[in-house]
Here is the input.
Amino acid sequence: MTTRPAIEIAEELLDRTGRGLDSGDFDLFADAFALPYRHDTFDATVEITDLADIRSVYDQVRRHFRQIGVTRIIRFCVAADYQTPDKILSTHESHMFSGSHRIRPPYPVLSTLERRDGAWKITASNYAIGEDPAHAAAMLPKEKQQTSASHAAPRAEM
Here is the structure.
């Protein structure tokens, strides 16, 4: 089996999810994730187990970005390393702009990428978006918004 550079795989998934968010192509976006998928913010840890929850988060994040005037998001991979032949830990940084004006300070995201049935998918992400509580809230599926925040436990690792 040929091993591609971990950073190339991470950037490919960033590109796919970014294009899906920008264009409104939910299927392109959702195809980058494996279920169950877990993501953490400073406020909550959520396990997403079905496509409806991914759709809920996708719609809410797109709505939030429109509300705060995001016109461009630049995301780039800072580091990516294989943990096993089928698991990569990657860190990317997200920068949000309205025109040429930075909306928020950049924030890092630590993601776990796993090869499932021959395809690389995102299985977990940890978003350090403490400066934007509305963004963190948009990351929760609607039906989990009230229960998850009250039951969140700090996570030391992905």
